[in-house]
Amino acid sequence: MSKPIVVGRFSFPHEAHIARGLLENAGLKAFVTDEHTINANWLYSQALGEVKLSVPASQVADAVSLLSQDFSGSLDSEFGMETYTCPKCGSQESENFTKGKVPAFVVFILIGFPLFFYKHGRKCCECGEFWKT
Questions:
Q1: 79-108 per-residue burial string, b: 16 or more CB within 10 A, e: under 16
Q2: Which of 18, 22, 29 is nearest to 60 (CA)?
Q3: Cα end-to-end distance, the chain, whole Å
């Protein structure tokens, strides 16, 4: 049997196990190494070369192909992720945003008590428009 080839490196063991599950679901054999050492002392992650995900040499091409795919679109449709449209420009690209967080932090540091209230909502990645959801 040939030596397993590393096809992925991850900072934390749970990330490697998610990728391993993806590969095993596709019928590939996958192995996670260095997870216990990094679980015991996560500061060793960079020194050890992170948590490694390996596959047999004959399955490297298939594993790399699977790991390079973006499945986020299928997750959005499967779990019914809500899409938001910017009221100003109509863009679908937005992110969760908390308005007023920085001024409140500065006031808290200066006087020890926050005076501003936060506003939670969405911020458009295209035009910067903020709106409450």
A1: eeeeebebeeeeeeebeeeebeeeeeeeee
A2: 29
A3: 56
Residues 48 and 34: their CA atoms lie apart, in Å, by 8
Phi and psi of 86, rounded to 5°?
A: -65, 130
Tokens of 92: 């679908």
| Domain residue ranges of the chain, discontinuous segments joined by + | 5-76, 94-131
77 has a pLDDT exceeding 70:
no
User: How many whole angstroms separate alpha carbon 99 and alpha carbon 118?
Assistant: 6
Which CATH number describes the domain made up of 5-76? 3.30.70
Query: Nearest-CA neighbor of 126 among 100, 92, 99?
Result: 92
Structure tokens at 10: 């991850």
Cα atoms found within 13 Å of the Cα of residue 87, Cβ hemisphere only = 8
What single letter denotes the amino acid at residue 42? W
Rounded to two decimals, the pTM is: 0.56
Residue type, 114: P
pLDDT digits (tens, 9 = 90+) for 93-127: 888 888 887 887 788 888 887 676 778 889 998 99
Task: Answer whether 64's CB lies under 8 Å from 24's CB.
Answer: no
